[in-house]
TrEMBL record:
It comes from Nocardioides flavus. The keyword Nucleotide-binding does not apply. Belongs to the cytochrome c oxidase subunit 3 family. It is a multi-pass membrane protein. It comes from the Bacteria. Residues 1-189 form the Heme-copper oxidase subunit III family profile domain. This is cytochrome-c oxidase. CDD domains: Heme_Cu_Oxidase_III_like (cd00386). It is an enzyme of class 7 (translocase). Its EC number is 7.1.1.9.
Length: 189
């Protein structure tokens, strides 16, 4: 219950960012038309696909945790036999790739002169995507804690499965927020 209440407060935080984005965009439509031309939509689409795929990997890890399967029971390339660890490690790697992609995109936009202080568009772009990136990084840290607990514990318990489920709620939330940001920033422009 506490996780759902906390995620609701996070939803309000991102709702405020969306409201600010649309408000500033409404008063400066010509700025938005000019600055969004520098966005690399195909790259952002690929980066989004990686983050969305990580949500599926995370959920398969949760299914393994619910079965009480911590580690794989077959070969490394036999995905059907993977346990919580393998799925959460894959999720972590995909999330880290997403963050790396965001950093590359930031470097490209800075090269084009779009910075946080360059315009209202730059401010809103970096605030919305930056706070999302911080949330993704927080999720990556949570995955490390869950994985660490599975390696340190003598046996896998129901409490560890619940922890994995709670982390998955957060990860799915972060993914859904990104889908909203992606459509707002890259599709609607």
């Amino acid at each position: 219950m506490g996780t759902i209440i906390w995620l609701s407060s996070e939803l309000m935080f991102f709702a405020a960012l969306f409201a600010a984005y649309f408000t500033i965009r409404a008063v400066s439509p010509e700025l938005w038309a000019q600055e969004t031309a520098d966005l690399n939509v195909p790259f952002a689409t690929a980066n989004t696909a990686i983050l969305v795929a990580s949500s599926f990997a995370c959920q398969w890890g949760v299914f393994a945790a619910e079965r009480g399967q911590v580690g794989r029971t077959g070969g490394l390339l036999n995905f059907t036999k993977w346990g919580l660890r393998e799925w959460f490690i894959l999720t972590y790697v995909m999330g880290a790739i997403f963050i790396g992609g965001q950093a590359l995109e930031y470097a490209e936009l800075v090269h084009h002169g779009i910075t946080m202080g360059s315009s209202a568009y730059g401010s809103m772009f970096y605030l919305t995507t930056g706070f999302h990136g911080l949330h993704v990084t927080g999720g990556l840290i949570a995955f490390l804690f869950v994985l660490g607990r599975t390696y340190l514990a003598r046996r896998f318990t129901h409490e560890q499965a619940v922890t994995a489920i709670v982390v998955s709620y957060y990860w799915h939330f972060v993914d859904v927020v990104w889908i909203g940001l992606f459509f707002t920033i890259y599709v609607i422009k």
